[in-house]
Amino acid sequence: MAYDTFDPAEIAAGQPVKQELWQKVSDNFVDHESRLSDVESGSGLTAPPFEFAVLGAHWLLGAAQTAVATMRAPYALTLTDVKLFIVDAGSAGTLQIDIQKKSGGGAFGTVFSTKPSSVYTDGALYTSTNAALSVTSVANGDFLRLDLTTVMTDCDEFYVYIYHTVG
Description:
The chain has 167 residues and is mostly beta strands. The protein has two domains: 8-41, no CATH class; 46-166, Sandwich (Jelly Rolls), CATH 2.60.120. It is built from one helix and twelve strands, in the order αββββββββββββ. It has one helix at 19-41; strands at residues 46-55, 65-72, 77-86, 92-102, 109-110, 112-114, 117-119, 126-127, 132-133, 137-138, 143-153, 157-166. The strands form three sheets. Strands 1, 3, 8, 10 and 12 form a five-stranded antiparallel β-sheet that branches. Strand 4 and strand 5 form a beta hairpin. The chain starts with 18 loop residues before the first helix and ends with a strand. The mean pLDDT is 88.
């Protein structure tokens, strides 16, 4: 709802206040309070993405790696997308990542139906677009873990961006 503007003629000094003016004031106040409640609750707001920065020769450690990075969700959120950004292209192989989620004392489980990946021929400064989420709800305090399913030889720098909304 947009705010109703006041016509200067409606608020002229010395003129009586009309019912229509009071209605605009009331409607604007209600709209203001509604917007304020939405902002304070944070529900549905798009937040800056979480970032896992992976630097170093992880490819030397083997094909699959568990718990390369872990974070705890600072609030309840809804996952909207995950992007893999390759800074340094490798010389062979495919880098495929997995984000695993853990709630409470349960086991870690993937959030993907299709995991983001990049083949070395994609080149440097490449962003994957092939991820498909199967789990989107993350509760306050849930753990998110970055695993490497396969590695790209000579890929020494990449980032994982986790896009989400609050609530």
